[in-house]
Amino acid sequence: MFNSDNDEHWTDHAICRGADPDLFFPVGYGAPVLQEQIAAAKAICGNCPVTADCLSWALRVGEPDGIWGGTTPDERRYLRREANAPARRRLPVISVRGDVEEHRADQAA
Prior knowledge:
single chain; mainly alpha
């Protein structure tokens, strides 16, 4: 990450600065023609030296639109959900009509 003590900001080093902003804000994300636009935007992000800073910013502010740090809004929602998810633990076995006891008896035999 770039140092906040000087006048530079991570956006000063983003290679998308000279690109058409519309490329990074498709009208939708599902249509095949839009998939090409998303792939083109992600290709630019893939060569950018500040992709991690960009993604971190988008996740921190909850950016709802556009391609940021090489991710779509759905991908960022997934990342936020995974980061905020509680640790998973095994659920208890629930017996319905004695199925569990019958299964255990079969295994013991």
